[in-house]
Amino acid sequence: MTRIHNGLADLCSRARSLFAQGRLCLLLLLSCAGNTAQSGDLTYEVTGSTITITRFSGLGGTAVIPGTIDGMAVTAIGVWAFYKSIGLTNITLPGTLTRIGYGAFRGCTGLTSLVLPGSVASIGEYAFSDCAGLTSILLPEGVTSIGYGAFSGCTGLASLTLPGSVTSIADYAFSDCAGLTSLTLPRTVTSIGHDAFDRCTGLVSVTVDAVAGGYRFSGLNRLKNVTIGNSVTSVGGFPNCTGLTSLTLPNSVTRIESAAFQGCTGLTNLTLPNGLTRLEDTTFQGCTGLTSLALPTSLISIGGSAFRDCTGLASITLPNNVTSIGANAFASCAGLTSILLPDSVTNIGEIAFSYCAALTSIVLPKNLASIPPYAFFGCSGLTSMALPNSLISIGDYALAGCSGLTSLTLPKSVTYLGNSAFGGCGGLTAIYFTGNAPSLGWWSPFSGATSAVVYYLPGTTGWGSTFGDLPTKLWKAQMKGSGLGFGVLTNGFGFNLSGTGTLIVVVEACTDLANPAWAALGTNTLTRGASPFRDPLWTNYPARFYRLRSP
User: Fold this and answer.
1) What one-character-per-residue DSSP string does 303-348 give?
2) pLDDT tens per residue across span 378-387
3) Has this prediction a pTM greater than 0.85?
4) Do the domain assignments include residue 121?
5) Pick from 384, 313, 383, 388: which is nearest to 344 by CA?
6) Which of 105, 200, 427, 477 gives the lowest tally of CB atoms within 10 Å of its CB?
7) 104-117 burial string, b = 16+ CB within 10 Å, else e?
8) Count of domains observed in the chain
9) Both 281 and 411 in a single domain?
10) DSSP assignment letter at 358
11) In terms of Cα–Cα distance, which of 43, 45, 18 is closest to 30?
């Protein structure tokens, strides 16, 4: 046995290598750390009664690590011990080994297969990274943690089985393993680091049984088959996996991470779990192949940009428990023709439905207090919108560019209209206010709506000859209960309508004033302030009550 006296120089050399890799390492040199010695091609360090292999100086071929040296157990492969031993093709590790250190076999490009003994509990950072020739690894039961970048850059790795003992997979552990085609994450895994499988572009099939969330399989265009186990509670995601077409999430899942399916353009069929309460930000952004989606009744909130740019989405129904819709949630869903907003919704974020050009009508929730800025900006196909009696304010540009709107009725609860709230709504001809004149922003809410007339009701205040640069007109219509044309006629029950000039009047009817369910019977245009009305079906009801309203 030959004693090595240049241990300090060796450690300094390894420190320089660490700095070259862009990672900072603090080396503490303690006099009691042990002795360094040589056995054949192996340099080792003795600590107490155990041995750590610190360097391999052989030319390559097969290396055999003994279980003992001088009666002491070999328990660890140290930092950079076999670093860039490119001639190494095979290695035998002893059953006494418990730990493989930082960069221990990094860059051993000639190594083709690896069998780790059952005694190994942890695999250190970058331990086998850039072993491009490695095609298979047998990880034993007993391994609990796989370190940062441990197998990163093992581009030849075609198969991998993670044992049921693994609980932790660190950041980038298997990143750039482009040859890997299938993977199963066992349910024992409770921690998966950032981009642990980043750029594993050959993956076709992934099975997730791990309870840990936070994982990402990003940009894997070949990935087609994903199975999520019934024990999984959190789904990390598969963003930009364009080959993924169908996925069922089990009811055990209670959380889907943000951007989980962002950019999955091939996804056409997805089943969400029943217990899900929130869709995080950008969950389905850019899923252009998604045409419909059933949302679970447990859902409470939809995050920002959750469905943004889902251009193939034609319709969606929000369950009755949803209270909040985030900013940009459905922005640029160009194919969306209808959406049902339940009365449970109390908050809609800015730009939530902007540029939904195919949306033709929408009924807003009855408890909504505010339409935020740009909420329906550019919805050029929108022809009708029912505003709730709870509405207080309409924000800047909220309905700007809704050129298909021809008329709109604002409830008396509205007290504020923002700048250009209806800007560019060139199709507007009539805007009906049922309450007092609301306050305005710095400039007109109707900029560009030059053909519109503002109508207001008798008894309301704040109106002048113009409002927001548009002309105003008193809307006053009444039914005449006497005279020619009133009563039972040959073509039904009739009465005459009169009003202030040329007005559009909607006649409604109900059968019970105690519990009225008003239904529109017809729309009449008063020519020179008058128009007849006939109800040919009045005999079908035991009683019939009528009222007038603006469009």
Assistant:
1) -TTTTTT-TT--EEE--TT--EE-TTTTTT-TT--EEE--TT--EE
2) 999 999 999 9
3) no
4) yes
5) 388
6) 427
7) bbbbbbbbeebebb
8) 4
9) no
10) T
11) 45
